[in-house]
Amino acid sequence: MRFYGSTMPTVFITGCSSGYGLETARHFLARDWQVVATMRTPRPDVLPVSNQLRILPLDVTRPTSIEAALAAAGPIDVLVNNAGIGVVGAFEATPMATTRDVFETNTFGVIAMTQAVVPQFRKRGAGVIVNVTSTTTLAAMPLAAVYTASKTAISGFTGSLALELAYFGVRVKLVEPGYGPSTSFGSNGAARMQGLIPAAYAPYAEPIFAAFAQPSAITTVQDVAEAVWGAATDGSDRLHYPAGADAIALAGGA
Ligand SMILES: NC(=O)c1ccc[n+]([C@@H]2O[C@H](COP(=O)([O-])OP(=O)(O)OC[C@H]3O[C@@H](n4cnc5c(N)ncnc54)[C@H](OP(=O)(O)O)[C@@H]3O)[C@@H](O)[C@H]2O)c1
Q: Looking at residue 138, which CATH number applies to its domain?
């Protein structure tokens, strides 16, 4: 796999304050990469002290923040679009403002980050973009219509973009994690999900939430970090990387 003229390639990761992004940053650092770990509110204490690590502020919904973070990062070899927010609830009860917020981060944030790095990758004839979506793009899950829409848009976007950028030697990949209860995903979305199960939906939602609470298989942060690592470094044209036992089962044992 060819990276930008350096023995230590550079990965730029969004959403590193917790969960899958944080573990992915640790994973690349442990393998001697230069890591640009970005966070809305930088917290150096969550990562090991290393002269290979830079922590930069980035909110993927703000164009000026994207421009400033990429300017400060300098040339990069791999972009990992990991930042994302969740919403679970009855679609009927989900305010359009919430839907727009979810799309601003999960969909337009990823598209904007990608558009900002494509020129440097295309000119160099190298580079990898890894978009973290979800198993909701692999099989329909109830009470997740808006979240699924935001991630499925990126699934289609990535597949199409992978074709046109392959012409320039640039790879674009999908990492599809399953349910990861160890991350801050649920607590970060709790306020957004308040009141999204109206009384009429309660009898329907109750057994579904009970099943969510007792999953037969889950995804760990290490599963996702390893899948991102594979997507970034395997040099293949593979598009889909399900991450986690539940995701691999849903994808048909891929
Ligand atoms: N956990 C799961 O069950 C699960 C399953 C499938 C897919 N995923 C996907 O995996 C990715 C990582 O989620 P996670 O489970 O690790 O959740 P997490 O612990 O909540 O991490 C999400 C990260 O995204 C960041 N973020 C949110 N909005 C942002 C914005 N506008 N700009 C920049 N960063 C932003 C958060 O930063 P702050 O600290 O600033 O909020 C946080 O660092 C997401 O794309 C999520 O959709 C998660």
A: 3.40.50.720
